[in-house]
Amino acid sequence: MIVPGSESQALGAALAAETGEPLAAVRYERFPDGERMASVEVPADADRAVVVAATTTDAAHVELLQLQDAVREAGVEEVVTVLPYMGYGRQERAFEPGQPVSARAVARAISTGTDRVVLVDPHEASVTDCFDVPCDVVRAASRLATPLPGGLTDPLFLSPDAGAVSLAESVRDAYGRGAVDYFDKVRHSGTEVEITPGDAAVEGRDVVVVDDIVATGTTMSESIAVLDDRAAAAVYVACVHPLLARAARTKLERAGVEAIYATDTIERDVTAVSVAPALADAL
Amino acid sequence: MIVPGSESQALGAALAAETGEPLAAVRYERFPDGERMASVEVPADADRAVVVAATTTDAAHVELLQLQDAVREAGVEEVVTVLPYMGYGRQERAFEPGQPVSARAVARAISTGTDRVVLVDPHEASVTDCFDVPCDVVRAASRLATPLPGGLTDPLFLSPDAGAVSLAESVRDAYGRGAVDYFDKVRHSGTEVEITPGDAAVEGRDVVVVDDIVATGTTMSESIAVLDDRAAAAVYVACVHPLLARAARTKLERAGVEAIYATDTIERDVTAVSVAPALADAL
Amino acid sequence: MIVPGSESQALGAALAAETGEPLAAVRYERFPDGERMASVEVPADADRAVVVAATTTDAAHVELLQLQDAVREAGVEEVVTVLPYMGYGRQERAFEPGQPVSARAVARAISTGTDRVVLVDPHEASVTDCFDVPCDVVRAASRLATPLPGGLTDPLFLSPDAGAVSLAESVRDAYGRGAVDYFDKVRHSGTEVEITPGDAAVEGRDVVVVDDIVATGTTMSESIAVLDDRAAAAVYVACVHPLLARAARTKLERAGVEAIYATDTIERDVTAVSVAPALADAL
Amino acid sequence: MIVPGSESQALGAALAAETGEPLAAVRYERFPDGERMASVEVPADADRAVVVAATTTDAAHVELLQLQDAVREAGVEEVVTVLPYMGYGRQERAFEPGQPVSARAVARAISTGTDRVVLVDPHEASVTDCFDVPCDVVRAASRLATPLPGGLTDPLFLSPDAGAVSLAESVRDAYGRGAVDYFDKVRHSGTEVEITPGDAAVEGRDVVVVDDIVATGTTMSESIAVLDDRAAAAVYVACVHPLLARAARTKLERAGVEAIYATDTIERDVTAVSVAPALADAL
Question: What residues does Mg(2+) 2 bind to (chains A, B, C, D) (predicted)?
């Protein structure tokens, strides 16, 4: 049985179709005092529930705890929790004294209601250590090759920093051809800064900038502007998690992005492909 | 200049591309006390601003008033307000004594900041009377033919009630072939109820259920279930405004919908086509 | 060290004053993507942190997990969590199949970050079983006697049902004089219903209706109306948790309440006395 | 008839009691799609409605428009709108190019539904110009003298800047005795800064810091700390609008405030006196 959180209903349906498991009937209600209740119609013979819920809001966190509890209460033996996007996942350490490790705080809470957790492309792999139950990671970046236009000109798959280069490689490999590189700043002396890839590397080529998350879009739109200056043919953005907070979308558009492609770990209008096949393998 | 509200950034970009007008740089901020501020970078020579904002939340309503004011304050002469989806638009009369005409309440507020309003497929045409400035309606349902699969079998375009049949006709006309009908209940005697279209009419055919809004999805999922009982080949949902509140998506999926197609009046993952071309004509 | 949640800052200060423990410097921030961060300035020698947080919203639940984690991360050995008002506490069992036991779901989450939990007058005592760590209950209803006017006429302390009569007794005992009773409906035959206390019992007396929570105020305002019909002198409301959702306050006022007194488990304008002394004893 | 907004129910009741006008029965509902509806039970003979609503949230702004419309729709002739606290009131001009004058934006909207507006102690008096209908200001700071302890020692009423000194005077005048001063920084040379009032002026005295709003509490807590350094006996805070955003309350407490007193323009636990008498005079 696939049990979708309110923010992951499309992915839930895709996962049900992919795995052949039934999609559970769910209800998301809100009481006059502001409290919510998520309930699940559980068939008598259900022995496993896969709760799929992007925790993009605080309400989604509480809802997830309720969905986990509802299936347990109904007698389901095994509960698997899929976090296509894990809220607070980037706060996986205290950057300043006095800060919480928010990822750990929510991970522990989530662990109390499940036998196992599955994450999709977390920002930091170490976030899996925050859970008290087994936690697997599914790599879904390769799915982003599917919606890309077929005839890209001499394509370059570029990550905004060295850390995300494996994501760019995944997309390139799935696309079947093209080069991989990443942005790198080299400071020569005083104010002289060289940014690679250089002009020659991108001129006339179609560039796909690949990242795990696009949040406020500031870094990404700067990258697009640099590529535009260097006469790239067209610049595409491919990201796993299209958070697109505040004016992110407008920033990317104004910077001259050709198109944005994302998965359904966060369900947005830029969602162009499902991670369901990758998840089905892990389940 | 196209000025997008935070909920209509993709449509804003599409409209900018369609009209050739520049997409304005906007900022959406939130202060510690919870108040928001939407500001706009206005070029010195801008003489018209088209503010495009789906008012799907109360915050979006206040943001719209701010965007209108920001462009006026910057000296823009003409302000056009496009409401791709108008929040509270369905509350265009008092259904019980003591109720507000919420559509009128927000329409008057919006009218104070604009010279003209453009609505996309309002639920009730009479809602245009709520505004104190000229208000035009753009019909965009025909856009929904674009994402539909090309080879539908003997397609039937169906509206959930007689009132929405013109929407179904628009989609059919744009699609180029197929029949149009609507659900109708005829009560013969006592408990005997006949629902048209009858079994014969839908058997083996691909059916596209067309409506302006899908809100909680209850009516729509019941329609799909009836069509499934009557052996329709595949059932598609096409709607202008994909509100998809609460468990709507899951209801449709469980009822057996083949696919859901919507426009970008509300930007969701089911958004498959832009209303920008239709809006560009009206501007 | 007393660490207040954002909804319990007054109680946190009161508890610091009562216990002599320092009130921690806290920061509540919100990032552009909507995520929050609550951080705590922790002195090097702090060995115990008492996190005090009413979980009246979903955001407050996540914030609590962060505050617990922040003090642990800073090396504090013992974490005590005081829930002056426990959100979802009334959902301590599944009332319909498929529902979650929401109280248990959040209790387990809270348990992961603390050594011990203290609740103030939970709606159901059994909710303490939902926690995985020791959970104590503090009875604070007697505090409500403090703000009551001193010269009540032949006071009657009344609970809306038999279950809450011990609360009424607590207030009466602390007040020092007066009778205790509860509303009871006896159905004689067909439509004949007798409600006790009868007319004689309340006529000319000052009545204090005592309950643990006032949520939407429907039951409470009906009780006040009955008492008014029966010629009670003045009707006061005393409650521990002034949730006062939606139009609750207006309902009580229209029903003719003389005054409303509540504690600071939820910090509202009707808060008239602190539960800090009762909590200090338990800590 | 007094029609309270959901955030001003206590003030609404106080105003009804003060004026003898009936308190209207209101309902605040929320639909599954997130839209709200505020409705009002309007007696047939009601010829004037006083809508009282602090617009502390975006939802409260939309609710106010609905309440205004509901009473108009029910045939009420005169609608007076009281904004005990006017959200966005401090944004009464564009501080940077491209910003909206948010106060004007919401004022225009509010003006469409009312014959007259009454504000309580706006941050800037010029905000009244933002309305398209007559707008009166009620000064309620003097009300803050009521909850102050009677026996203050040689009291000094202090405003955080020269602009707010008239508020401090109002409170002093109502209190009946004491001096008035304000914080002022004089820079002598280099790093030497003199802040008045000087040490002598505050030593051993009870000081009441008076301001219109306490928002994040940063300025106010710094003032308290300075007074504490200078050996003031006790420091009280008196403010009209207790916004108390984020950690404001904790900051004040840690700075050593003795007590905080505020009115019911925003209904908080520090609310200690009603502005209803001042409003009744203006109505």
Answer: 161
- Same-domain status, A80 and A154: no
Report the alpha-carbon distance of residue A146 to residue A165 in Å, rounded: 19
Instruction: Spell out a b/e string for B267-280, using b for 16 or more CB atoms within 10 Å of the CB, else e.
Output: bbbbbbbbbbebbb
Catalytic residue, from A96, A98, A185, A189: name it: A185
- CATH number, domain with residue B32: 3.40.50.2020
Determine contact, residues C266/C275, Cβ cutoff 8 Å: no
In a domain, A271, yes or no: no
A270 in a structural domain: no
Q: Could you tell me which residues come within 8 angstroms of residue D20 by beta carbon, excluding any fewer than 6 positions away?
A: none
- Show which subunits contact D, needing at least 3 CB pairs below 8 angstroms: B, C
D149 & D183 share domain: yes
d(CA A176, CA A183): 22
Q: Is D139 annotated for ligand binding?
A: no
Answer yes or no: is B130 within a domain.
yes
* D181 backbone dihedrals φ, ψ, rounded to 5°: -155, 175
| pLDDT tens, position by position, C37-56 | 999 999 988 999 999 999 99
Residue A135: helix, strand or coil by DSSP?
strand
Contact B16 A253 (CB under 8 A): yes
CB pairs under 8 A between A and C: 153
Whether the CB-CB separation of D58 and B61 falls below 8 Å is answered with yes
Q: Phi, psi (5° rounding) for residue C50? A: -105, 105
Residue carrying the six token digits 């609970």? C159
ipTM above 0.90, yes or no: yes
- pLDDT single digits (tens) D205-216: 999 999 999 999
- Do the Cβ atoms of D230 and D259 come closer than 8 Å? no
Q: pTM of the prediction?
A: 0.97
D126 assigned to some structural domain? yes
Whether residue B136 sits in one domain with residue B30: yes
